[in-house]
Amino acid sequence: MATDIQPYNDSPDFEKRDFGKRDFAKEEAYMRAKKKLEKLVGFYWHLAVYIIVNAFIIILITVNSNQSLFSFGTWATAFFWGIGLLFHFLGVFGPGFMFGKDWEERKIKEFMDRDRSNWE
Asked: HEC string of the chain?
């Protein structure tokens, strides 16, 4: 009695594959990209919740309290949670996000393309 076992399907071109000659490098690159995307989506959800919750807290404090809008207590949650959000940002995008090697190469290419279009 043979069982009909289906192979693991986690890529968009699954049906087109020849399982005798599987391209593991391509599959690994796909899995890395998928994991990176999940981290990115997680960060954006964290950012959205941060904005919504802190806006709600600040509105509640200003409406229901005698506390000034400019006192530290009003902004304490946003401040400390913002530090956590900054670390989440660095975990997702990396510390070299703004001025890393990739950024430099992209800017050089952008300047070269702009110069080329100006001369043509």
From this structure: CCCCCCCCCCCCCHHHCCHHHCCHHHHHHHHHHHHHHHHHHHHHHHHHHHHHHHHHHHHHHHHHCCCCCCCHHHHHHHHHHHHHHHHHHHHHHCCCCCCCHHHHHHHHHHHHHHHHHHHC
pLDDT at 22 over 70: no
Mean pLDDT of 16-38: 79
What is the value of pTM for the model shown? 0.63
94 dihedral zone (left: phi>0; alpha: psi -120 to 50; beta)? left
